[in-house]
Amino acid sequence: MANSVDLVSLRQAFAARNWSACQTIISQLKIQITSFTGLPPLCELPNVQEQLIAREVYEHAALLSLLQGTDRAQSVQGFERNFCQLKPFYFDLGGSLPASPLMHPILGLNLLRLLVESRMSEFHTELELIPAADRQNPSIEFPLKLERSLMEGSYQKVMAAQLNGANVPVVAESFSFFMNVLRDTVREEIADCFDKAYSSLSIASMQEMLMFSSTDELWAYMNAKSRDSWVLTKDRARVSFNPRPASSTPIPSTFDVALSYAKELERIA
Fold it and tell me: CA 231 to CA 122: how far, in whole Å?
């Protein structure tokens, strides 16, 4: 059976930011957890100690997937897997276990994950599981405010958004993971509009509209994206846009999602 020494080692490895050690310890603990008989969904012989150990292991595993991974898709999938294992501890056993200090941050991260992936129906389904009083917690309030800003088209607010009240550094970094993904998505949405709305733009205007803090960041973005419809003028002061031929296959965008979400709200109301 997993013991407190194992958990102490895991906490120490997290504090030291030794992600490889964390992964090793978590893998060993997960193997030990398979022998527990007091865990959901069966809870054959309910055991609070086993439940607390398993909950903490899955919490650290969820955070580790975002802190350690270099591949975004794999990191998100890892977080989702561990969150699914955590949900019964938060919602089914929540009344019988001491509160976890990581519960609100992880619930907020899950909402942010769904928001980033434009899975709005699931976003609101998960939100309904969270008691109204808990929604005032900064970690949960943060994705709710982001969602409102996205629906309003207030992209400046989205790009400037920062989580306040995150006292644990790894929690703040985990939120940054999803915020970086969201900022990239917002920039792509704005950039996609350039060749539809403008014949050309100055580099300074593009930097401001894409909300980069320096021209170096803009150049790096342009070099990475290699958009065929963007043509840099000889003096490198402006970019001309060649409209792309209309595609026969529409691609859903954040704006499409916003419209769909608005219709869904109207239906629910």
Answer: 40
| CB-based contacts of 257, cutoff 8 Å, min separation 6 | 118, 120
pLDDT digits (tens, 9 = 90+) for 96-134: 899 999 999 999 999 999 999 989 999 999 999 999 999
What are the structure tokens assigned to 230, written together? 């963007």
Return d(Cα 144, Cα 123) in angstroms, integer: 10
Q: Which amino acid is at 90?
A: Y
Torsion of CA 16, 21, 23, 28, to 10 degrees: -130
Q: Is the pLDDT of residue 268 over 60?
A: no
Q: Residue 241 is inside which H or E element, if any?
A: strand 238-241
Cβ neighbors of 255 (< 8 A, separation 6 or more) are 153, 189
Residue type, 241: F
CB atoms under 10 Å from CB of 192, counted, come to 17
Calculate the CA 240 to chain-centre distance.
34
Other beta carbons within 10 angstroms of residue 188's beta carbon come to: 14
Spatial contact of 241 and 199, defined as CB atoms under 8 Å apart:
yes
pTM of structure? 0.81
Mean pLDDT of the chain: 86
Secondary structure of residue 10 in the 3-state scheme: helix
Secondary element (H or E) of residue 150: helix 138-152
CA distances in angstroms from 178 to 18, 24, 25, listed in the order given = 21, 25, 25
List of residues 6+ apart from 16 with CB closer than 8 A: none
Are 56 and 11 in contact by the 8 Å Cβ rule? The answer is: no
Length of the chain: 269
Cα–Cα distance, 93 to 87 (Å, whole number): 9
